[in-house]
Amino acid sequence: MTDSSETVRCWLVERDYNDKGLVTLAYATSDGDRVYRRELAAGAATRSRVTAAKDVDPDQLEPVEDEDTRDRYAMEVERTAEGYDPDDPI
């Protein structure tokens, strides 16, 4: 079990909307190797505060298998981190 004080900073790299009214937010580690996904109802996503970064428990992170996706996530993390503070709404 992971100590709750240990977290990994992840940055918003993707926001997908589906035809069922759900929004999936993807937050990736700086190297793009791992991702945390959060699914919300579209209405909740507009009412809740989506921030540029989240501190995530390592147990909640999934590996990113596809190399192109890892590279894309790493580039998006860099862009997001340069343009926003972690707590900025995005």
UniProtKB/TrEMBL annotation:
Where do the segments described as Disordered lie?
Answer: 47-72
One Pfam family, please name it: DUF7967
Q: Where is the DUF7967 domain?
A: 5-90
What spans are recorded as compositionally biased (Acidic residues)? Answer: 58-68
Name the InterPro entries on file: DUF7967 (IPR058273)
The protein's name is DUF7967 domain-containing protein
Organism encoding this protein: Natronobacterium lacisalsi AJ5
